[in-house]
Amino acid sequence: MRVLVLTGAGVSAESGIPTFRGKDGYWRNLDPAKLATPEAFAQDPELVWQWYAERRERIRAAQPNAAHGAIAKLAQYAEEFLLLTQNVDDLHARAGLPNDKMVQIHGDIFVTRCSRCEFQDKGRGGSPKPPMSGRLRSIAPTSGNDLGVPRCAECGAPMRPGVVWFGEQLPWNEVQRVENFLDRGSCDVVIVAGTTATFGYIVDWALRASPDRDGDLIEVNPEETSLSRFATRLVREPAATALPRIVDELIGS
Ligand SMILES: [Zn+2]
Questions:
Q1: Of 106, 113, 151, 160, catalytic
Q2: Is 222:215 a contact under the CB 8 Å cutoff?
Q3: With a threshold of 0.70, does the pTM exceed it?
């Protein structure tokens, strides 16, 4: 069995992590769609870092849910498996899914990388502040708070969260990993869970994995999405409710 699973914010939301959409996504009355941009970071890196520090804390306090568990279980049974997630949290990993079976196409919120050069810090330290390990120097904050912005140990430029912001390109290496997986053959099962599939590349990849719908294309989402009309099976339930059942059916069959 060759399986591709695509997940989005809905799967994390069921662990209590707010999505960018709707009122819950707002932070200090600021719109995430405006904060998660290179422009916002250039204008006020401290503010953006404060937002990410709080988000990191919230993710650390959250637990994987039954959807994460079911996907990790399916990965163990499938001969070939890839999870393509738009989520930047670590809940899939904490549910037991190995890194080599997962692509975080929008990056990893716990990575801190230079805004100018290639230097990055993958530490997952317990501090709610931006990581300021021995290799990172902080500059004196200018706006009256003590958070500061970490600076690159190599070139001195401000460090930034290792995520893909609105208007930025997807990470080339991760795109290649998806392309390579799809090039090796079509999938018997494609599951798309907890995403409205608003990004064209998500729809394209899901359809490429299941050309002519030879296999199953299962959509698990409470609402209709742009992928719904292509699905061979629609499950209008939350992922944590539906996925354990679907995975047990697939493993049993
Ligand atoms: Zn640098």
A1: 106
A2: no
A3: yes
